[in-house]
Design goal:
There is one protein chain. By secondary structure, the chain is an all-alpha fold. It has a single domain, classed as Helix Hairpins, CATH 1.10.287.3510. It contains three helices and no strands. The longest helix is centred in the C-terminal third of the chain and has 31 residues.
Length: 101
């Protein structure tokens, strides 16, 4: 029994929904960033599944570009987390509303 492409799409959708829930429901900035990464990885899984379904490498190229963007996002995000924590002493997302101009 082989795994069909539809299984990958269902798994990708489930991972995306879990990540979206984490972004919406959580208040810790680290958990929000991890949930964003989960959403990006679910999109990567969908890219690879499309690539496999169409026997084309274009989806894999998009996946590599997405991983590159995710790595840059993690670097900037963690720098912001360290700056907010050293300035405010907490990683609560609600405290960031004070920073609005």
């Amino acid at each position: 029994m082989s795994v069909s492409v539809e299984h990958y799409f269902v798994l990708s959708a489930v991972l995306f929904v879990i990540g979206a829930y984490g972004v919406i429901a959580r208040r810790n900035l680290i958990v929000v960033l991890m949930s964003l990464e989960l959403m990006l990885n679910s999109a990567n899984l969908a890219f690879v599944a499309f690539s496999r379904a169409h026997n084309d490498v274009t989806g894999q190229v998009f996946m590599i570009m997405s991983i590159t963007v995710a790595a840059a996002e993690v670097a900037v995000g963690l720098a912001l987390v360290v700056a907010v924590y050293s300035h405010r002493g907490t990683l609560d997302v609600d405290i960031l509303k004070i920073l609005k101009g």
